[in-house]
Amino acid sequence: MPGKFCVSLMVAKNDTDKATVAFVVANAALASGQETLVFLSTEAVRLAVKGYSDDIHEEGFAPIKQLMDNYVAGGGQIFVCSPCFKKRALEESQPIDGALIVGGAKLVEFLSQGAASLSF
Fold first, then answer.
1. What are all long-range contacts of 58-65, with beta carbons under 8 Å and residues at least 24 apart?
2. Which residue of 29, 41, 48, 77 pairs with 34 in a disulfide if CB–CB is 3.0 to 4.6 A?
3. Fold of 4-119
């Protein structure tokens, strides 16, 4: 039975290195057979907006959009903090594929099932 792994991400263009590495780790967890969740909060919720990540590319890594697309295509889940999204007045009708805007209870439910967690 696979384990559960959560990557909590709080940055976006304000720290593209951390944002990129978070999705590298999420892809690695998924590839190792873990049921994997990326939780986007605070500034990271902007990554859930179509087009926002298109120009993020840290040297030495694949572009973050590619990392995110691969993650979702591989079955990874992305939860987006609803209050954080609303605070930034972002458009809820057009999130990226694979992103689900949720309240904190959904994150707590996932973590309470024994998920390991890493924060960026």
1. 58/16, 58/17, 58/20, 61/20, 61/21, 61/24, 64/16, 64/19, 64/20, 64/23
2. 29
3. Hypothetical Protein Ychn; Chain: A, (3.40.1260)
Residues 6 or more apart whose Cβ sits within 8 Å of residue 74: 27, 30, 31
Residues recorded for the chain: 120
Residue 94 pLDDT level (bands cut at 50, 70, 90): confident
Do residues 56 and 64 touch, judged by C-beta distance below 8 A?
yes
pTM (2 d.p.) = 0.95
DSSP string of the chain, one letter each residue: ---EEEEEE--SGGGHHHHHHHHHHHHHHHHTT-EEEEEE-GGGGGGGBTTGGGG---TTS--HHHHHHHHHHTT-EEEEEHHHHHHTT--TT-BPTTEEEE-HHHHHHHHTTT-EEEE-
Residue 44: strand pairing partners: none
